[in-house]
DNA sequence: TGAAAGTCAATAGA
DNA sequence: TCTATTGACTTTCA
């Protein structure tokens, strides 16, 4: 998908004028966007700027002067691989430092409010055909969309992570310390997993409010901390561990993540499985340590992250698998189970059920294959009809129903419990 | 302790 | 052969 020349340089299918920064004649639009932000937005994004700062970059952050050279493009391969895998698009390059991302399956849209949104329906939004990244010699990273192909050519959607004044007029810059590949990787993950949610349409302010902080650990891990967010969340701020510097582990621990877009995640997993012809049984047993049927249900009826309890671990295993580069994802599927846990950076999940305890009827003979009871159509229709009236029949009523339909009261109880849960599922989705 | 959550695993269906 | 459905079991939670 990426276009790398064999000598390590980068093919440049795009004309040189495309590598130039886009013009910003539509600055009034952007100013309006800035006005839409909370009053103290810029203070939360970064400390208020002083004039001296732009004259003396060291005042921005002590970290910014550590290394003035650009991040080698070779390093960016792994960083953007996750982005490519996630959005299933293509990155091409122009000049030495500019990258373009485009996807045939997905579009990036911008709503009139200035919100950055992810959509698969091009009719809903003014669609941006490309998402562009650029990394200049000062290690500033820009991410911007260009809809010049179908809209006025000054209509850009930008945000920039920089330590120098932005060429785009947002009224101020989103300032972060010098980017390392770890930082960029982490930023990508946050953008993908937290902010590109359909329920919680992200906006640029969300992204801008992430600060990069150095953890006081000997490992070269950094953490993205969200000090506050205009998106209302019931959970504490999000925090994601980035890929280690050797690229060996892109995993996130359960206590490091406060939100995963499970719907989006499941869609990605399903596409990935289809593309690489991974059977549900294989993925379920190898990656999740769960059964095929469980995976099928999870993929088709993803539960909202905030409603999950112990089940978060299963989604997190999907997430951590997807966060790996493609070659590693495929390799994990071939690994022994213990190595899979290690590769995902997660301990073996507690078995959902101790097989030896399985089934009352099997206790006497564990080798006996259980036959599944199936309600007759009359039994089912009656149970469903009652469910429409009363989702939670009393014990007495359940006994009456059981007697009437010649069923075990336990079967009736199970029916209503399953029905409530599965109806709730569909409602939430 | 009852209900909900998480899941298994048989089997229906494509 | 693979996925979707679903009755029932185990674990967790309030």
TrEMBL record:
Localisation: Nucleus
InterPro entries: CUT_dom (IPR003350), CUT_Homeobox (IPR051649), HD (IPR001356), Homeodomain-like_sf (IPR009057), Lambda_DNA-bd_dom_sf (IPR010982)
Record's keyword terms, sorted: DNA-binding, Homeobox, Nucleus, Transcription, Transcription regulation
Keyword check for Flavoprotein: no
Span of domain Homeobox: 366-426
One GO location term (cellular component): nucleus
Protein's name in the database: One cut domain family member
Stretches for region Disordered: 1-36, 218-248
Originating organism: Caenorhabditis tropicalis
Gene Ontology MF terms: DNA-binding transcription factor activity, RNA polymerase II-specific; RNA polymerase II cis-regulatory region sequence-specific DNA binding
Family per record: Belongs to the CUT homeobox family.
DNA-binding region: 368-427
Pfam families in alphabetical order: CUT, Homeodomain
PANTHER family named among the record's database cross-references: HOMEOBOX PROTEIN CEH-21-RELATED, TRANSCRIPTION FACTOR ONECUT
Residues of the CUT domain: 251-337
Keyword Repeat: no
Biased composition (Polar residues): 1-27
């Amino acid at each position: 998908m990426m276009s790398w020349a064999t000598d390590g340089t980068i093919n440049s299918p795009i004309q040189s004028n495309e590598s130039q920064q886009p013009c910003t004649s539509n600055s009034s639009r952007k100013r309006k966007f800035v006005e839409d932000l909370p009053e103290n937005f810029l203070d939360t994004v970064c400390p208020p700027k002083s004039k001296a700062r732009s004259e003396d970059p060291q005042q921005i952050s002590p970290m910014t002067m550590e290394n003035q050279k650009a991040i080698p493009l070779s390093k960016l391969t792994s960083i953007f691989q996750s982005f490519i895998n996630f959005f299933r698009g293509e990155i091409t390059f122009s000049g030495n430092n500019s990258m373009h991302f485009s996807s045939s399956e997905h579009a990036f849209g911008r709503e009139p409010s200035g919100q950055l949104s992810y959509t698969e329906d091009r009719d809903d939004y003014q669609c941006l055909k490309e998402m562009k990244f650029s990394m200049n010699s000062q290690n500033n990273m820009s991410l911007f969309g260009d809809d010049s192909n179908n809209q006025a050519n000054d209509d850009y959607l930008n945000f920039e992570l920089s330590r120098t004044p932005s060429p785009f007029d947002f009224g101020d810059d989103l300032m972060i310390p010098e980017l390392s590949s770890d930082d960029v990787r982490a930023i990508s993950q946050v953008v993908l997993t937290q902010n590109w949610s359909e329920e919680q349409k992200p906006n640029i302010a969300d992204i801008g409010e992430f600060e990069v902080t150095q953890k006081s650990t000997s490992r070269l891990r950094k953490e993205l901390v969200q000090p506050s967010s205009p998106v209302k969340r019931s959970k504490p701020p999000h925090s994601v561990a980035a890929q280690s510097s050797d690229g060996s582990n892109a995993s996130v621990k359960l206590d490091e993540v406060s939100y995963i877009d499970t719907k989006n995640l499941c869609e990605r997993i399903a596409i990935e499985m289809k593309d690489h012809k991974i059977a549900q049984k294989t993925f379920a047993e190898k990656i999740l340590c769960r059964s095929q049927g469980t995976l099928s249900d999870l993929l088709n009826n993803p539960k909202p992250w905030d409603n999950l309890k112990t089940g978060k671990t299963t989604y997190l295993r999907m997430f951590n698998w997807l966060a790996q580069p493609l070659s590693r994802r495929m390799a994990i599927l071939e690994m022994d189970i213990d190595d899979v846990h290690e590769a995902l950076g997660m301990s073996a999940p507690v078995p959902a059920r101790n097989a030896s305890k399985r089934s009352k009827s099997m206790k006497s003979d564990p080798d006996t294959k259980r036959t599944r009871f199936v309600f007759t159509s009359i039994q089912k229709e009656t149970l469903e009809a009652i469910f429409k009236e009363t989702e939670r029949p009393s014990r007495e009523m359940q006994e009456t129903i059981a007697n009437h339909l010649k069923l075990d009261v336990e079967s009736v109880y199970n029916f209503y419990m399953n029905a409530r849960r599965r109806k709730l599922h569909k409602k939430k989705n």
